[in-house]
Structure formats: C-alpha cells, structure tokens
Amino acid sequence: MFRPSLRTAGSSKLALPRNLSSLAAPARPLLRTAATMGPAKSQAQRLGMLMAKSQPWAKPATGSQFLRRCYSAEAAQEENTTPALTVEDMMPVENIRNIAIIAHVDHGKTSLVDKLLAQSGEALGSTRVMDSNTLEKERGITILSKVTSVAYTTPDSKVMKINIVDTPGHADFGGEVERILSMVDGVALIVDASEGPMTQTKFVLNKALSLGLRPLVVLNKVDRPTSRVDEVDGLLLDLFGSLGATDEQMDYPIVYASAKEGWATRGMDEPRENMKPLFDLIVDHVPYPKVDRSDVFKMLVTQIDSNPYLGKCFLGKIAGGTLKIGDKMQALSPEGKQTESGRVTKIFVRRGLEMIPVTEAGAGDIVTVTGVANATVNSTLCDLTVTEPLPSNPIDPPTIAMKFAVNDSPYAGEEGKNLTSNMIRERLMKEAETNVALQVIESENKEAFEVRGRGELQLGVLIETMRREGFELSVSPPRVVFKEEKGQRLEPIEEVTIDVGNQYTGTIIEKLSKRKAEMKSFDENGDKTRIVFECPTRGLLGYSAEFKNDTSGDGTLNHTFLGYSPFKGGLERTRKGSLVAMGSVGSATSYALNLIEPRGKLFIRPGEKVYAGMVIGESSRAGDLEVNPTRAKQVTNIRTVAKDENIVLRPPVEMSLESMISYIAEDEVLEITQSSLRIRKRELDASKRRQNLRNNRD
May I ask which residue range the UniProt record assigns to the signal sequence (predicted)? Predict the structure, then answer.
C-alpha cells in the first residue's frame, strides 16, 4: 500500500502528483498511471522537488526497500492523518503473483524458499527459516503451510510482489496442501533430480492439475553426481500424462536448480549464479489473480492463527473487492449460514519473515484479518450484502482413527496440569477448527474422543503438541476407518513406494505380501531397486519399525492414499507377547530386571516407575507373561563367602512416540504425560484381563 503524501523537512504535507512517468522504475507500478493526468513535464519537475526534499526518497530504492516503505508500520499508524487510499493506489493486480511450492518430502522446498528470501534482500538468521514451529525444527520436516512474500524487480524495471506458500511434503499432512491451493494461481513442482517423482509428487501434482493450475517444474539437486536429469524429465512427462493433464499443462517449463547452493538456470550449460531465472519464470508463467476490486469484499479462510493480543487471525486470499480497517464484515459457514458479524480491527500482509500492518488491502493479495472470533477454516469473510459463500476445495477423507481418553493410571496427575476430559475435548475441538484433515467424534459417555486423521505421523504430532502443553491422556492403538457401500465393506488402500538395496528385495516382498500388498512395479537401477505396491492401510500399521530392521536402516518407504477397495481379509499377527508388570507400585530394581531379561527385550531401566498392568518389555514368545520388576534381593544377617555378582543389563529398547503408537496391541493403550511415555494394558487388573480373554474365546 502506498501513501500518496510525503513529509518535507518542515513536516508540511505536499500532494503527490498523479502522473509519474518520470518516477524511478521500482516505484512506478504501485502508483496510478498517467493516462488521465495533466502535463507530464510540469508534474515531473514538481515530483523532482518532492523527492529532493523528502529524506526517505533521497536515494533510488530497490524493489525490496520500496515495498518495505509501502507496508511500513508508520504508514499504518498515519491512518487518521493521510488521505484515504483508492483502489488505484494499491499494488496493481497485474503485479501480483501467488504461487505454492509443492513436492515430495526432502526434495528441497523449504531450502528453495530460504534462497528466494535471501536473494530478495531478506536478512535470514539461520537456514530453514520457514520451519518456525518447534516440532518442525526438531524433526527437520514441514508440518504447517506458511505464507511469505518477496519483492522482485523485473528486467523491464517493474516491481512485482510474489506471495509464496511453503507446503509440507509428507503424505500425512496432505490436507495442508489441499486447502492452500485455493489461494494460489500457480504451483512450482520441486523434484529431486536423483530420486525422481515419488508418491507425494503424484498426490500434490494431481491436486494442482485437477484445479486447472499450470505447474512449472524445478529439477532440484542437479549438481549431485547421482542426478538423472534426462531420465527424470521423461518420468515427469509420463506422470503428467497419466494424471490427465491438458495440453496447456503438459507444456510445462523446467528450471534446473540447486537450492542448497542458491542458483537456478533454464539450461544445464548456462551460468550458475543466482535465483533470477526462477524469479523471471514465476513472473512470466504464473498468471496474475483474476479478481475484481470494484466488487464487494469476499475472502475464503484458509488458515487460522492465534495471537494473545488480537485473538484469532484469519489468513486467505481476497477474492473480490477491497478491505479497510473499520469495515463491517460477516462470517459465513460453508453452508451459507451467518455465524458472526463484526468490524475489521487489523489487516496484515506478509513481508519476508514479518507481519506488516496495513490499513487497506485489495483483491488478489494474501492477507491476515482480525475482527471476528467464530469463523473456521473454509468459512467466508465477506461484506454484509453477500449471501453465498465462496466454494472450498474438497479434502480427502481421514483413514486412521485413535481414541483419546483421560489418563487413569496410578501415576495420573503427577506431571501434567490439563487432566480432565473437558480440557481434552476443548483442545481437540480447537485443533479440528484449524486442521481440516482431522475429525473429532465424541463417545456417548463424553469421556473419550475418536480422532481421525491421515496417518500415524499426523496424529503423533498432535499428541506430542498436547503433551508439551501439559496434557495427560491415554491413547488407543490406531485402527483403520472402513466404509460401507451397497452392503460391501471397503477399506483404504495406499500406494507404497520402497527404495532399497537389491539384497533386501526378497525380504520386503515377503513381508508385504503377508500384509495383503500387491506388487505393481519392480525397477532395478544399479545397486538400488524401486518397488511399488498397493497395500491396505491396516497392513502398514506398525510396519515402519519392522522395515528399518529388515533393511538395516538403508531404505526409504513412502506411501500416499490411493482410494477405497473391497476388504481383503484378516492379517497375520506379527508381534510377540508382552512382559507385563505385576505387584505393587514402585521402582524397577536391577536384581529383578536381571532375572526378567532372559525372557525377552526390556523397555525400562532400573529405577524407573512401574505399576501393575504396565508393559515393561516384549516377550520372546507369543502370549503375555506377567513378571515382577520391583522385586528386591532378600537381605539377611547371614554372612556368605560368595561375592555378589556385578549386574550388567543390556540397554533397553528405546522407541519414539510414533514407534510406540505403531507398536501397541489392541488390548493396550499408551499413557502420555509431559515427561513419560508408558505402554500399559487397557485393563490393569490381571484377573479381569484373564476373564475378558476367556469371554472372547467363548
């Protein structure tokens, strides 16, 4: 947003001339054109006097500097002292580009955005600055979609505003990709030049093509010795064709890049200097938003953030009209029902890593708005005269469900602060408002909640987030969400892509065949093999840990939702029994664990808290085995010649949260507190467990 006034040294306001044919090129596109103004010569002279007297404009501004001045906080604070802006004073729609960066996990999306920000003039304190969430930094993956923008000056001296959306690459967070595609007018498909198209590449590309978007392709990591540029280009062409791309979408441009090194080229033999070729391609290939700023205000809510001072902040692309602070607006549900009305209190635009307040925004731009509290994702914020909501993109259904309940173990309440079912319910409902890929269903007694999502990783991230917020809860093992159609039971099917060494292929095929998987392709490439399966989702539950053991960590497994098919029958039990603690509440002793260790693998160390019904290890045989880990050596006053043995235990098996979720059996739950993760039996009393087992057999 540009302020049509400048302050001279004497603080007196001077009107800014409207014909700006002689203005410095970076500023020209943001101001009204000279088509309807007076003589250019006199206005140019007057403009020269203004620019000489005004200190901020004493030197030519780069595109980045100019946008900073246009979107400065000081400009926003001058709302009452400067003339109101008109639609023509804003950034022209023709100078805006909205693009999403989509790709498979670890193909270089976030690294690419880092370099685009850095080369546009942003000061970055570290790498992967877009992964600002704590869990994202720890795990090295993108979990939430995030919006930023850069200013770029084209070779013909136009200042362009490029809104960039960084998206997750993991299949479990595909809902984040689906919902943001309504905000953008183009996508950049990042593909690893060594790995080529993967499962999530196919998923995100299919979503973009179905919405009519024209992708541009970035072949990343082409500087690696293992890159296969020509072969991957051919695979991409086949992928576009198999997904039903139109002739226009098939004619996609390609950029060869190294996001890590910070360069991109249109040809492999061109100089490798910077990201300018990619910037130019975005400006030329991505269309500007097709919107009407003379229409009434409309915006589809795509993401919700919380601010301790402003409340809920709603992110989206303005689909029509303009918006000013103080304007009346309403929130419409996806069904068209008004949920709330209010006034606009704040408007923010993204600039690099900052949220810049402005007083007015126009259609085509991506903004954050505050002023209402009850809107949700896919709600429409609009003028009071609007009666029809904006259409939203459909989201693929969840395939995995877990039950969240209150922690009722003997150690409940010792570590957490949010303990009751009402607190758990409130937190889950809040998450469901912002994450459209999650569904929360209450049980009849209101004590437990079924949470449905895309995969174990997505639900694991939610559980870890709640754990760090001070919640204590117990969660059941994941189960598959079935469908019933015409009296037939349907189950979700995943497309599984596995890359392993040639020596492991036999083991992988054998294991997945037992899990009802069907092999679709088998391609050898040197000492590596890529195998593609179609496998029931329930067949993949708990398989990731087994896959790592089978391949000695030298393999990758990726999967994405394919669709529903008829139920394929039961699966063989692959897990052995559990070592279940009995006795009283207490701490495990070295003496007892030394006696238990020959019976199987231990999950605990000496000194850890245990209680009856807690799973402390995996038995070496089928069926559960009850053991006493708190047993201490009997102390007597009888002297003995024999010396006490020095007890040396093997290191216990350590599992992450996702590994535990995959591991627990149907009659077990996972106890989660701020500092502890414990696997336990759903029924702690041993006699009741035996009785339930007999009843199930009968």
Answer: none
CB 214 within 8 A of CB 249: yes
Cα–Cα dist 255/115, whole Å = 15
Q: How many whole angstroms separate alpha carbon 151 and alpha carbon 277?
A: 15
258 pairs with which residues across the strands?
A: 263
What is the identity of the amino acid at 565? S
User: Minimal CA–CA distance to 105: which of 213, 177, 207, 165?
Assistant: 177
pLDDT surpassing 70 at residue 490 = yes
pLDDT on residue 121: 66
- Identity of residue 562: L
User: Quick check: 55 pLDDT over 60?
Assistant: no
- Going 337 to 339 to 341 to 346, the CA torsion angle's sign is negative
Per-residue pLDDT, 116: 85
Neighbours of 444 (CB within 10 A): 6
Rounded-to-integer distance, Cα 200 and Cα 559, Å: 8
Helix (H, G, I), strand (E, B) or coil at 565: strand
Amino acid at 484: E
Quick one: residue 546, left, alpha or beta (phi over 0 = left, psi -120 to 50 = alpha)? alpha
**Sheet arrangement for strand 96-103:** 146-153, 159-166, 96-103, 186-192, 215-220, 254-258, 263-265
Cβ count near 107 (within 10 Å): 28
User: For residue 256, what pLDDT band results from cuts at 50, 70 and 90?
Assistant: very high
Mean pLDDT of 373-377: 83
Token couple for 256: 């060869």
Please report, for residues 343, 367, 378, the alpha-carbon distance to residue 346 in angstroms, rounded to integers and kept in the order given.
9, 10, 20
Angle among Cα 612, 467, 454 to the nearest 5 degrees reads 100
Determine contact, residues 619/582, Cβ cutoff 8 Å: no
How far is Cα 100 from Cα 146, in angstroms, rounded to an integer?
10
Q: How many other C-beta atoms are found inside a 10 Å radius of the C-beta of residue 372? A: 22
Q: Give the pLDDT of residue 86.
A: 42
Query: Residue 658, Cβ neighbours under 10 Å: how many?
Result: 18
Greater model confidence, 324 or 1: 324
Identify the pLDDT of residue 40: 36
Helix ranges, 267-363 (H): 276-285
Which one-letter DSSP state was computed for residue 294?
A: T
Compute CA distances 268 → 119, 222, 254, 294, whole Å: 21, 9, 11, 45
Nearest Cα to Cα of residue 367 among 309, 311, 305, 308: 305
The span from the CA of 338 to the CA of 397, in Å, is: 26
Ramachandran region of residue 11, left (φ > 0), alpha (ψ -120 to 50) or beta?
Answer: left
Distance of alpha carbon 131 from alpha carbon 451, whole angstroms: 25
Which distant-in-sequence residues (6+ apart) come within 8 Å of 634 by Cβ?
Answer: none
Confidence (pTM): 0.73
Beta bridge partners of 489: 484
Predicted confidence (pLDDT) per residue in 600-613, tens digit: 889 988 888 899 88
pLDDT value of position 438: 83
Q: Are 524 and 502 in contact (CB under 8 A)?
A: yes
151-203 pLDDT, tens digit each: 888 888 888 888 888 887 676 776 777 778 888 889 999 998 888 888 788 88
CA distances from 644 to 6, 598, 637, 648 (A): 88, 19, 15, 12
d(CA 279, CA 271): 16
pLDDT (0 to 100) of residue 217: 92
* 95 within 8 A of 363, measured Cβ to Cβ: no
Cβ-based neighbours of 401, under 8 Å, separated by 6 or more: 450, 451, 452, 453, 478, 479, 480, 481
| Beta-carbon contacts of residue 643 (< 8 Å; ≥ 6 apart) | none
Cα angle, residue 205 at apex, residues 237 and 380 outer, rounded to 5°: 150
* Antiparallel, parallel or unpaired: β 625-627 and 578-581: parallel
Model confidence band, residue 572 (pLDDT cutoffs 50, 70, 90)? confident
CB atoms within 10 A of CB 261: 12
